[in-house]
Amino acid sequence: MKKFPFLFAALMLAGLLLPTMSEAQVMVRTKHVAPGVTVVKTKPVKPGRNYVWVDGYWDYIPRLNRHVYVEGYWAKAPNRKRVKVVKRHQCRRH
What we know:
Layout: H1 3-17, E1 51-54, E2 57-61, E3 66-70, E4 73-76
Antiparallel strand pairs: 1-4, 2-3
């Protein structure tokens, strides 16, 4: 009969050391991928000699939880004689 309290205490200690189901964790990562839809648009007439075409792209808007296509546009080319180099940090999340 003296073995019963020792056995009971050993089983209780082993039960405390084993992980329970409530401690299990599952991690799911998702990556937002642009739709596979190809958007075909015609370029408008070039407004001037010093303009370059900026292509359209798919942009993800988290608030709307969807992708939105941003159309291409003509932008004025930078002055080649005066170019400002800006240090830029690009964050990549994977």
